[in-house]
Amino acid sequence: MSMEEKIVEELKSILGDLGEVWIQREKRVYAKVPKNLVLPILAYLKDKGFHQLTTITCVDWIKRGKFELIYNLFSLYHENIHVFIKTELERDKETMPTAIDIYPMAFDYEREIHEMFGIVFEGHPRLDSFILEDWDGPPPMRKDFDTAKYVEEKYGVKDYTEEIWKRMEQPYREEKDE
Amino acid sequence: MGLFKISQGRSLWMVHFCTGCGAVEMPPTMTSRFDMERFGIAPMATPRQADVLLITGYLTVKTLKRVIMVYEQMPTPRYVIGFGSCTVNGGIYWDSYNVIKNLDLYIPVDLYIFGCMPRPESIIDAFIKLRKMIEEGKANKWKDYIERYDWYKQNQAKLFDINKWRVQK
Amino acid sequence: MSRVKEFDFEYFIGPAHPGVTGNMNYHIWAEGDTIIKIEPNLGYLHRAFEKLIERRMWIKNFPLIPRICVPDPDVNEVLYAMAIEKLMGIEAPPRAQYLRVFMLEMSRMASYLFYFGGVAGTLGLYTLPNWSIGDRDYILDRFEEISGHRIYHIYQTIGGVRRDIPDPGYIERVLELMDYLEKRLKDYDKVFFEHPIFKKRAKGVGVVDKETALKFSVTGPNLRAAGVPYDVRKAEPYLVYDRLEFNVPQVFTDGDVYSRVMQRRLEFEESIKIVRQVMENLPEGPVNIKLRNPFELRVPEGEIYVKVESSKGEYGFYLVSDGDVKPYRLHVRGPSFSHGLQLVRHIGPGTNIADIPVILFSLDICPPDAER
Questions:
Q1: How many Cα atoms occupy the beta-carbon half-sphere of B46 within 13 Å?
Q2: pLDDT at position C172, please?
Q3: What parts of chain B have a pLDDT lower than 50?
């Protein structure tokens, strides 16, 4: 039995009927779990030897009205296999408990997701502005934020106008008396 | 005073500030293949003793605050060169919410270098053109900043709060 | 005699500074000369790539993609092309795969030469940057002949590479350049790698040992210098790396600044070996698959994660597609996000202020790929 099939067997024996586990291709195992089982599964996999949290991705499915979080785990001792734990949240209604007690690397990934998508992680000590400073609009990576309209309103410049051509053609100013 | 202007054009010191992705072509210009120290140009760490500020590439709103702090600390006469096509109209990031589109509204610019990226030979060519402009007395946009200070500050106030230089803890 | 109590001082190693690698900021609290707390501050170079990529068609994203990582731009293009090809189920022809390996290894060598110049500059030994950045220009000349631009070569496309090598004499010029670089490494040894000042200032400084490296998601040459022989080219071979012969050196494994610099110097020699093997065994054939109409290309639904070994660490793309003419979501996993933030907060306290630029340059932190 290959290593991917062993991991699938173990995860299925814990989850039972509550989630799905499948193999996507070589060295990639996916598991879809409900929201309240994510932290126990992360703790179980960390005990087994999955020492590295590579990244946390967030996808905005606006037509269905949900956010999807994907945790990407990796282990050197299990033949370099990546395990992806997926979960879904209601848009603007649900919050997620934080994972920094299990993996300390999640501190900065969760800060970035909070700033870009607006998801609140309960128990995180510091969810303030990280990359954007003095930002006054909605969280920018959501699908209903239109950046071209925002740029027109804030910066006010659409294309080359008469004024801009005149300023660029004469880079120096005429001296009236010297 | 012709002698003063001739000698000023031959020793321009630039501020060592890599603001954007165009800064990856600055080390080849400074080192042994396209040596620019033979023209009298050298990098300087502090803005209090520098002449030229090179804006290498795009500017975000967070960097623009710091660039204005650096520009206002330089002693007059001071010159600004805009580097790359992102300073002209935003370049390839024309629809990004964090990149400023028109550098000329916030600080006065003397010279533009076009390209993405400009080659090291174009950078040296731009410094030679700046030297000629200084000798003829045409590189005097710094006086514009002093006389029309309110207009520049009004443009800057649309992006951030000019009375509050916030320090992030 | 009683001593005056020293207070905590706050400093900024700010954006306009020759001691940080690029445009970022570190906020330091220090007592005397020893550091108590260090806090990074990012966001000066944020261009919102992930939002801009969702607004353009699949083939129109290629000019935007190499600008994510500035010293090593080929990695992004190869990853994007590989992710789309795996979702569509097509494979590039063999000649195109050999040329992709060639571009990746030349880009790795150019990035390592830039790195050596940076580390030597912080210690005050300025002969090495003047030599190594001048030698890196010969590599950029070869890039200019094959693709037209020195830094951002938009050379990969969906199904292969855009054009073939310009003329048959190109292979001889590349092999001459490899002989020249191998001879120059002996000059660099005399000037920098065996210099007593470098050895004294680099041994035992900024130690990242094996448990810390595994706990804080460190990858790449920083992990190999701590004693773990993990290389993506051997663990999950992509393109034609399983047919080429090269080693993963494990000689210097203490985890300090000296080991990290010497690890990259040994991997530089391995890259020269790989480029020689590729150029002497190029197969014949076409260089790309003709697509019917690239402006109306639709990629089938699905999601995929691909990864590649770059000169900084493990670089990954997570691509989600829903069958449209534009991508739905692309998430970039840059190696500097884990090196530059949590790791520096952990190993910073206890060092001297004068050692901070040496440690930051030796970890090879590049802010554009940490904040995209």
A1: 3
A2: 93
A3: 169
**Does the beta carbon of C216 lie under 8 angstroms from any beta carbon of chain A?**
yes
Task: Please state at what angle helix C257-280 crosses helix C94-123, rounded to 10 degrees.
Answer: 150
Contact state of A107 with C342 under an 8 Å Cβ cutoff? yes
Q: Which CATH superfamily is domain A3-128 in?
A: NADH:ubiquinone oxidoreductase Nqo5 subunit (3.30.460.80)
The 8-class DSSP code of residue C150 comes to S
Q: Does position A172 have pLDDT exceeding 70, yes or no?
A: no
Element (H, E) at C328: none
**What is the interface pTM, i.e. ipTM, of the complex?**
0.89
Q: pTM above 0.90?
A: yes
Q: CB distance from C345 to chain A under 8 Å?
A: no
Region for A74 from its dihedrals, namely left if φ exceeds 0, alpha if ψ lies in -120 to 50, beta otherwise = beta
Q: Does C45 contact chain A (CB < 8 Å)? A: no
* Homologous superfamily of the C48-371 domain (CATH): Cytochrome-c3 Hydrogenase, chain B (1.10.645.10)
What is the secondary structure of B34-75 as a DSSP string? S--GGGT-EEESSGGG-SEEEEES--BHHHHHHHHHHHHHSP
Instruction: Report the gap between the CA of B102 and the closest CA in chain A (Å).
Output: 8
Nearest residue on chain B to C117, alpha-carbon basis: B27
> What pLDDT sits at residue C253?
87
Q: pLDDT digit string (tens) for C301-352?
A: 999 999 999 999 999 999 999 988 999 999 999 999 888 888 999 998 889 9
